[in-house]
Amino acid sequence: MKTEEFAGLVHKVVPSRDFMSVDAGECTGCADCVIVCPVFLWKVREGRAVLAADYRERCLECGACWQVCSSGAIRFDFPDSGTGIVVRYG
Amino acid sequence: MEKYDVIVVGGGPGGSVAAMTAAGLGLKTIVLERGTRPGEKNVSGTGLSPKCYRDFEFMKEMKLPHERVATMATLHLSDDEAVERMSFSFTPSERAAYPEAREFLTVNVYRSELDPRLFGLAADAGAETRTSTRIVGVVKAEGGRITGVRTDTGETITGDIIIGADGVISTVARTAGIRQKWDPSEVAMIINIDFGAARADIDEAIGGNALHYWYSSVFPVGYSFFSAEGFHVGLGNYVTWWKKSPHYYLNRMFEIEGVQRQIRQCKGVAREFQNHMVTFLTNPTTTYGDSVLLVGDAAGFACPFEAEGVYYAMYSGMLAGKVAAEALSSGDVSRGFLSRYERAWRDSPVGEEFVGGEAIDGFVRGIGFNPEAGRWVIPMLNDAAFGLLNVAESHTASARNLPRLLLPYVPELARELKEDLLPLSARMVERPRRSARPGLVRLMRKALPRILPPLARFAARRPRSPYGEVVGPLLAEHFLTPYAEERINTLEEVERG
């Protein structure tokens, strides 16, 4: 059993609008966001952080990537009213 | 347009208690929650402390469907190979400070049950409640005065005071210009897996021993906390601490036979993967602004030791509600007037938790959140217990062997005592006593420099036993001399007034 296998065990109302992004011009490619995200939404390609295309379906809205980003390249907001993660057993 | 006295942003425990208090004091209050239901955006360690029940009447009648009362906690210590080496448990003291503290350690609950109940109590008190309402920011009039909030549907809600109870990433704090982001060193991330289980199976395997802490030399402090029909298994550390994916560490924790056994015995079935951030501040300094009061995580009010948050959110919510009422009746919602909120929380159990903030922080970073320290702490505690209790030899021989077992740990222990544990106990135990009698202060001022340094020198000159050789000089260097110096400095300060 690997705990990674549970990372998809979430309940969501998938947001219809974007709530996160990365400014490639600001990103230094440090990969702090890649390490900290427990649902593996970030990758570094050609020295820049890239957000998974399906992040709206998987993001837990913790904001850790935004919090660790020392260059300020990551923009994070909460998804629109009534959408996003639904924690049943928090 | 309808105008509110108080707009509370966030329908968690802090926001609901703030709204309940404000509405109870007759203020026209609205509380806004971005989820479709309060609690659906929240994750917590599940344990409500006895303080919640001591300080809030409504908690005394609160009985949640899936709560489990924890009457015992167990600390498990595991080594580099994820093998459990030692564990010990404790229960509430019969001489604890108040009745609830003598009865239980925590009540383990789900936020999906707690938060809606508190939200309902806010409504009962007269607050207007709205779910599925996310704000994009505060609204400012010309000149910068905050006049309300704007929702993501473009609606403007007008009000005199905004209480930001909107969590670690507080939109209120950000848009009111109070704070953009915490320093990364002040925030931890916690991940956990929720398991469902039958009540009878948890009763049988766990009972009231419902708080298990897993400390090791390979992963950050982990936990398995049990509610009535489920449990959380997880761990956390500062957001900047992780060298590898958090799952690497969680997997190491799941390798421990004791963790697997709990899941097996409870027949736990994984239901949900969760994570959240919590603040770990030594001293919150950004808790209000013009027209704005911040409560709970939005203010950084989580206990810097165990990250307990719900109680501090509720308590600060209550204080914010009261200060809002005072401000409105004085007709002054300026930052200057609202500074009395900071005085109020500093003078409350919330502020008391931060009196030893820096010292607690040192301990948490030095040992609690530092698996490296487990490399010596865990074998040391184990060898001490083994040395005292084993039956491998006669007890006379065991006693003789004890120094051989423990002396290798003394240098690390002495360093830790000096750097973290001593300041921690000093900060917590010795609150500055400005009212000390001048005569006594003068006497101690004269006596201490004469007593303590010679005592330190004496300790350093007693190398007659294996203990003395190692312990004496260390005691002198790390303990007595710095202690004497610090006492003398404190006394000088007191003398100067």
Report on the architecture of this protein.
The complex is a heterodimer of chains A (90) and B (497). Chain A is α+β, with helices and mostly antiparallel strands and 90 residues long. Chain A contains three helices and six strands; from the N terminus they run ββαββααββ. Chain A has one domain (12-80): Alpha-Beta Plaits (2-Layer Sandwich), CATH 3.30.70. A two-stranded antiparallel sheet of chain A has the order 1-6. In chain A, strands 2-5 form a two-stranded antiparallel sheet. Chain B is an alpha/beta fold. Chain B has helices spanning 13-24, 50-55, 57-60, 99-103, 111-124, 171-175, 199-205, 246-254, 257-265, 310-330, 335-346, 349-352, 357-368, 371-389, 395-406, 410-429, 438-460, 466-496; strands at residues 3-9, 29-32, 47-48, 68-70, 73-78, 84-90, 106-108, 128-130, 135-140, 146-151, 156-164, 187-196, 211-216, 222-227, 230-238, 269-279, 288-289, 292-294. In chain B, strands 1, 2, 8, 9, 10, 11, 17 and 18 form an eight-stranded mixed beta sheet that branches. A seven-stranded mixed beta sheet of chain B has the order 6-5-13-14-15-12-16, sandwiched between helices. Chain B is globular, with a radius of gyration of 26 Å. Classes of the chains: A alpha+beta (90), B alpha/beta (497). The interface between A and B is large, with 40 and 52 residues.
